[in-house]
Amino acid sequence: MSVQRKVKWAVLGAANIAVRKVIPGMQAGEMCEIVAIASRSLPKAESAAEHLRIPHAYGSYEALLADSHVEAIYNPLPNHLHVPWSIKAAEAGKHVLCEKPVALSVAEARTLQTARDKNEVLIGEAFMVRTHPQWVRTRGLIRSGRIGDLKAISGVFSYFNRDSTNIRNIEEWGGGGLMDIGCYPINTSRFIFDEEPARVIALIERDPDFKTDRLASAILDFPSGQATFTCSTQIVPYQRMQFLGTKGRIEIAIPFNAPPDRQTHIFIDDGRDVFGSGVTTETFPVCDQYTIQGDAFSKAIRGEGQVPVPLEDSIANMAVIEALFRSAKSNQWERP
Q1: How sure is the predictor about 1, in pLDDT bands with cuts at 50, 70 and 90?
Q2: What is the pLDDT of residues 168-214, one digit of tens each?
Q3: How far apart are CA 329 and CA 332, in angstroms?
Q4: How many CB atoms lie within 10 A of CB 1?
Q5: 129-287+318-330 has which fold?
Q6: Domain with CATH 3.40.50.720 in the chain
Q7: Which CATH code is given to the segment(s) 3-126?
Q8: Segment 44-48 mean pLDDT
Q9: For the chain, first and last CA: distance in Å?
Q10: Who's near 120: CB < 8 A, 6+ residues apart?
Q11: What span, in angstroms and rounded, lies between the C-alpha atoms of 155 and 19?
């Protein structure tokens, strides 16, 4: 593959997820060349650039967006900065891959959609799980009827973090569990059912100090079945997704933080008994979901395929999140 086919990417900010996970993943791909990184602290940008062998470092986001060599921006900034800086990137003629949640509300996400269309760029949300082989395979198995008719999805996603300075615990910056991790079981349930929920209901417990949602449980009522999940920022770290059909069950062992350095597994149960006699395991080779995501988005930029998670999907996901917050206040079912 010639170097010219690679998309020239730049990164807004030196966030942990970018420096530790996404940039190394993208650098390992066939279609991504990371050419610049910016931080509001030039020394921080220079340190990240040196560590990750990125040729250019900028001390402001504006300077990076003015770089004519940059074709696409990866935006891992705090949640409340996703839309403002993604719009600025679009206005600079750059394509944008933005971390989730792409916005703080449906209305805000629609302003990003307007900017995308006006500036004729591609913008997508970084739900990297959508392109991981374990999710592609699970969706294919369910569509093929392997577990009969899919009727129920059940998920858990949690970690423990009471650091008052962490952006996930700052309410006005879009912190809290639903925005940070609850968005994953919502997104993947919509992905697997291939439908939108008609109504949703939620229970939410808030941290007494931070006021962020620290424990949330939800039911999503789809035309074909139901999805339930619990997410929390203050319980034991854990994640699992289960898909239950009329004839069998599929379980994804590490559905969201799939490791880049070890194999992943899904378990397919034919339901013959509760002891697991009918369980078979499918193992997936070592891969980096950030590499796959970056290459898929880059191919879309080159006109080969679609943006994996376009803004239309992001808006539908945000509508569910908004409805869950409304439900927790109204104590009633709410329509997204």
Answers
A1: very low
A2: 999 999 999 999 999 999 999 999 999 999 999 999 999 999 999 99
A3: 8
A4: 7
A5: Dihydrodipicolinate Reductase; domain 2 (3.30.360)
A6: 3-126
A7: 3.40.50.720
A8: 96
A9: 44
A10: none
A11: 28
